[in-house]
Design a protein that fits this description.
It is built from 7 helices and 12 strands. It is of the alpha/beta class and 258 residues long. Strands 1, 2, 3, 4, 5 and 6 form a 6-stranded mixed sheet that branches. It has a 6-stranded mixed sheet with strand order 8-7-9-10-11-12, covered by helices on one side. Helix 6 crosses helix 7. The C terminus is likely disordered. Pfam families: 2Fe-2S_thioredx.
Amino acid sequence: MTTVPTLLVLLGAATADELVRLQSLVQARESTTLCFLQRGEPSLVKELNRLAGDGEPEVKVVPVHAGRSATGRSWAFRVAGYWLRTWGAEMDLRMARSELKAPFQDLDDFLAAAAWQRVCGRDGGLTSPSWDEVPGYRHQVLVCQGPRCLARGAGEVTTALQRLLAERGLGDDEVLLTATGCQFPCNQAPLVTVQPDDIWYGNLDDEGVAALVAEHLCRAEPPAQGRSVQYRLRRSRGTGEPTKSSPPAGGAVRRPPS
């Protein structure tokens, strides 16, 4: 019996441990691939293109929920529908109605119990009149998702930021949390920058994230000139090279040793 190709599409920013677990599920099952709705490669669209190019008549998509504010399943369904309309494929494309969630149960059990919704390409679009304007946020927090930052705890930093911002009632209209590619300087991983203040925070753990939110994002003005903020990176005069204050040890947001 031929195994139907299955795509696990990650909806949010997973931690390093979650990614390892998902990769182990994929490796243990034939014709199964991990892809990303955002912030990673291969993307859902790229994998659908590959399978269509291989002539696959049927594909199943499993939304995978990771991270505190993962994009909902509906967006994966919209993207799959948009791809189907654009590609013009006659593929039988189906998406699980429920999400696979951490700690990620046995995949075969999930697939056997799942109810499936056919993607027909007529459900929802990718545009809306309400998405024309640039949001009026006060700060944009750029969380580096480069390879070194991810290896050293960027996923955990993202989760901690999401939790603390939610607890403080800071939504996208005040603080826009954005994942990026490599920002440099990699030796300071995990790294976060706050714009438009142009302040960089490195070697972040839970204390550093808490200080960033309380002492910077919750204030109407950025930290005063010359004030020593934990984890803040400063540019040495004349060299452009970053320097930093030493972070305290410990904390729940941890990373492997260098």
